[in-house]
Amino acid sequence: MDELVNDQTVAAILTGMEAIGVVAFALSGVLAATRARFDVVGVSVVALLTALGGGTLRDLLLDREPFFWVANELWLWVILGLSVMGAITLRSRHFSVTERAIQWPDAIGLGVFAAVGTQLALNEGTSALVAALMGVVTASVGGILRDTLLNKIPWVVASYQLYAIIAFAGGWLVWGLQELGLGSTLSTAIGAFAIALVRVLALALNWHLPNWRRFDDTEVIKLPGH
After folding, report:
1. Cα-based angle 128, 192, 5 (whole degrees, multiple of 5)
2. In this structure, are residues 45 and 149 in contact, taking their beta carbons and an 8 Å threshold?
3. In angstroms, what CA-CA distances link 167 with 40, 61, 107?
4. DSSP code at position 209
5. Are the C-beta atoms of residues 55 and 68 closer than 8 Å to each other?
6. 169-189 mean pLDDT
7. pLDDT tens, 111-121?
8. Cα–Cα distance for residue pair 172/149, rounded to 1 Å
9. Is the separation of the CB atoms in 133 and 171 below 8 Å?
10. Phi, psi of 19 (to 5 degrees)
11. What Cα–Cα distance (Å) separates residue 212 from each residue in 48, 93, 187, 215?
């Protein structure tokens, strides 16, 4: 009985953390869609895909039923409410939404979704590598769908930002903390905080992955032995 209660408590905490990630990603979708001057329907679609896309693909790959948003229908109403309120408020007050403003709530969603996605995969009995990759899927696919709908190359994969690599490392952190004896709930919470913190620091300090060296059209690249 105690073990059942403990499992239910852990599941409830993970669900609560996932709700935070849903709201954060939905908000980033709302900001991005209003910046592109979408109507309220377009804003809602972008917000829904941003918030639910990664978790849905994760559940498909892990064969988890029902999908996390089907089991928590209230989240759909919250996303739709945010979409309508955001579209009306930002339009009526003529706020100027910047690219940087979109990235702040996205950083929170990244941390929570990467950590929770990793833990849910571990709960399904996957290896550490698969679990970390499920964390990346959960955290990044929604943003890719958002940027694709906005007719942009997803900056997750094309702007040299520290994003997916942070989620991947954070997934290993969640697993490693449990290997050291920490409980799954505490490990997930620490992982989520660490991922979000590193992402915020990367944004604030402009950390990037190494970029391609730029060559002039007339410059010849000489390979070894030639």
Report:
1. 75
2. yes
3. 31, 18, 10
4. P
5. yes
6. 96
7. 999 999 999 99
8. 31
9. yes
10. -60, -40
11. 34, 41, 36, 9
Look at the chain and count its residues.
226
Q: What is the mean pLDDT of the chain?
A: 88
- Mention every residue, 6+ apart, whose C-beta is less than 8 A from residue 184: 10, 119, 122, 123, 178
* Average of per-residue pLDDT across 83-98: 76
Instruction: Name beta bridge partners: 208.
Output: 161
- Nearest in space to 187 (alpha carbons), one of 137, 107, 141, 128: 128
115-153: burial string, b at 16+ Cβ within 10 Å, e else? bbbbbbbbbeebebebbbbbbbbbbbbbbbbbbebbeee
pTM, to two decimals:
0.87
Cβ-contact 196, 112 below 8 angstroms: yes
Q: How far apart are CA 62 and CA 190, in angstroms?
A: 24
Half-sphere exposure of 162 (CA within 13 A, CB side): 20
Would you state the structure tokens that stand for residue 223, as one six-digit string? Answer: 């390979």
Q: Which residues contact 167 (CB under 8 A, 6 or more apart)?
A: 110, 113, 114, 135, 136, 139, 140, 195
Predicted confidence at residue 5, as pLDDT, reads 46
The per-residue pLDDT for range 25-66, each reduced to its tens digit, is: 999 999 999 888 899 999 999 999 999 999 999 999 999 999
What's the pLDDT score for residue 2?
45
Is it the case that residue 135 has pLDDT exceeding 70?
yes
